[in-house]
């Protein structure tokens, strides 16, 4: 990873002045309405990570791992289907989950940076899963009480599945971290790669705050301490040190993404864009 | 729930549903799997097992076909997500069917090998051939088997 420039005092002052930190542009009322936008965030996280995990199909280190990753991907794509179908209903322009998944361009995606990160090796994939599923489980636990019926129902159903994802990923973090010299080095690298995307998971921008106040969205700060404790406990068991704090990278929720997302979409959207309205 | 409902005028619809097999586990019906949440004279409410289970859509199509064939074209199928499906809803008949098919039914206590009945078993992989199953192995008879995950 190339070295990042140091953070100078004037950068800190600039960041403190311009909230939310790292935002590229001021926020106005989202075009399709706040609920539509919030559903896209939930759905796109699941969709993009599901697609990423699907890339492992047929390439995992063993058949059991192959099955595990494909199954986690299925669960995530199931969540995405529910969230995005509902987003389409809320928007009221006749788009369904498929239209939102396959016919939006990169700037219209609202997923966090963590999920779009390339798989790297198996350790990096598992580090990403560990950081994400631990967060998603705590998120869904809170969303079970959402006033938006569909969000509450999906959260209630999916929280059990995500618990499985978290356990699977935690076990691999421990096994690789507390494993051989090479497996340990790879897990350290995997965590180091993904660590800078964790702050974005807890970003409470205006939209997130707006939805939380209305009892629809989650108050992310409420489970930050839980998250940190769970991550720390697994890392301790894996005999790993948490990576040093890094400059957080934000922007996914407002459509600013890494260069990796476009490549992912190219693969994911190729068929429905090349053969519009193709059906099985 | 199932037994009581069969006594009223929805009994013939229940009978049709009892003949619809789960596409992944053809030895048990959608009723025994606990997918059918309620039946009324004009609608059937079903629930998906796992959020991303690809069988969900096939199940709905199979139920539609069975209802149509039995003359219940007017009965609509609705999907309800909440309350979330749990393996507790699998009937005793369903559990027996799973075991006979070589799949250990969901359990919170010791997992018994569906081949030889031994409780000396171990998990190979948390995920198996479908989202609802984990891969296990029997240490007594050395056979691998699927465990229907407790969910």
How would you describe what is shown here?
Chain A has 280 residues and is mainly alpha-helical. Chain A contains 12 helices and no strands. Chain A has helices at 9-17, 34-54, 63-91, 97-102, 113-116, 122-143, 149-177, 181-195, 198-201, 206-213, 224-237, 259-274. Chain A is globular. Residues 21-27 of chain A have low confidence and may be disordered. The longest helix of chain B is centred in the middle third of the chain and has 15 residues, at 55-69. By secondary structure, chain B is of the alpha/beta class. Chain B has helices spanning 2-5, 11-17, 55-69, 92-101, and strands at residues 36-40, 43-46, 76-79, 103-104, 121-125, 133-138, 144-148. In chain B, strand 1 (36-40) and strand 2 (43-46) form a beta hairpin. In chain B, 24% of the residues lie in helices and 21% in strands. Chain B has a 4-stranded mixed β-sheet with strand order 4-7-6-5. In chain B, strands 1-2-3 form a 3-stranded mixed β-sheet, covered by helices on one side. Classes of the chains: A mainly alpha (280), B alpha/beta (151). The A-B interface holds A 50, 64-65, 67-68, 70-79, 81-82, 149-150, 152-154, 156-158, 160-161, 164, 167-168 and B 48, 50-54, 81-85, 124-131, 135, 149, 151.
Keywords:
heterodimer, A: 280 residues, mainly alpha, B: 151 residues, alpha/beta, 4 helices
Would you kindly provide a brief summary of this structure?
Chain A has 12 helices and no strands. By secondary structure, chain A is mainly α. In chain A, helix 2 runs antiparallel to helix 3, helix 6 packs antiparallel against helix 7 and helix 6 crosses helix 8.
């Amino acid at each position: 990873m190339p070295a990042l420039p140091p953070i100078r005092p004037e950068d800190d002052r600039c960041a403190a002045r311009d909230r939310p930190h790292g935002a590229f542009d001021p926020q106005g009322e989202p075009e399709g309405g706040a609920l539509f936008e919030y559903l896209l965030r939930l759905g796109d996280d699941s969709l993009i990570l599901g697609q990423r995990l699907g890339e492992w199909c047929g390439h995992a280190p063993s058949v059991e791992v192959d099955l595990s990753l494909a199954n986690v991907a299925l669960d995530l794509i199931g969540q995405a289907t529910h969230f995005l179908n509902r987003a389409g209903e809320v928007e009221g322009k006749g788009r369904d989950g498929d239209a939102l998944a396959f016919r939006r361009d990169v700037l219209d995606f609202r997923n966090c940076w963590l999920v779009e990160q390339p798989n790297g090796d198996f350790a990096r994939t598992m580090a990403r899963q560990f950081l994400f599923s631990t967060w998603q489980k705590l998120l869904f636990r809170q969303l079970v009480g959402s006033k938006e019926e569909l969000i509450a129902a999906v959260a209630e159903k999916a929280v059990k599945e995500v618990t499985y994802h978290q356990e699977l990923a935690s076990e691999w973090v421990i096994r690789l971290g507390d494993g051989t010299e090479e497996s340990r080095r790879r897990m350290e690298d995997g965590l180091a790669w993904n660590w800078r995307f964790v702050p974005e998971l807890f970003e409470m921008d205006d939209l997130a705050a707006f939805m939380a106040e209305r009892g629809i969205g989650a108050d992310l700060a409420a489970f930050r301490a839980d998250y940190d404790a769970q991550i720390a406990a697994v890392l301790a068991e894996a005999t790993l040190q948490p990576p040093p704090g890094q400059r957080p990278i934000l922007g996914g929720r407002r459509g600013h993404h890494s260069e990796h997302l476009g490549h992912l979409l190219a693969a994911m959207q190729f068929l429905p864009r090349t053969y519009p309205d193709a059906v099985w | 729930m199932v037994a009581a409902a069969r006594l009223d005028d929805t009994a013939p619809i229940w009978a049709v549903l009892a003949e619809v097999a789960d596409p992944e586990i053809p030895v048990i019906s959608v009723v025994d799997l606990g997918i059918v949440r309620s039946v009324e004279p004009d609608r059937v409410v079903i629930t998906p097992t796992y959020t991303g289970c690809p069988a969900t859509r096939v199940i709905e199509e199979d139920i539609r076909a069975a209802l149509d064939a039995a003359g219940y074209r007017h009965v609509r199928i609705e999907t309800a997500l909440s309350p979330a499906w749990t393996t507790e809803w699998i009937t005793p008949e369903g559990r027996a069917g799973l075991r006979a098919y070589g799949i250990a039914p969901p359990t919170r206590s010791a997992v018994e090998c569906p081949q030889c009945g031994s409780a000396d078993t171990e998990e190979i992989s948390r995920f198996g051939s479908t989202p609802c199953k984990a891969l296990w192995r029997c240490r007594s008879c050395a056979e691998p088997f699927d465990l229907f995950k407790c969910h």
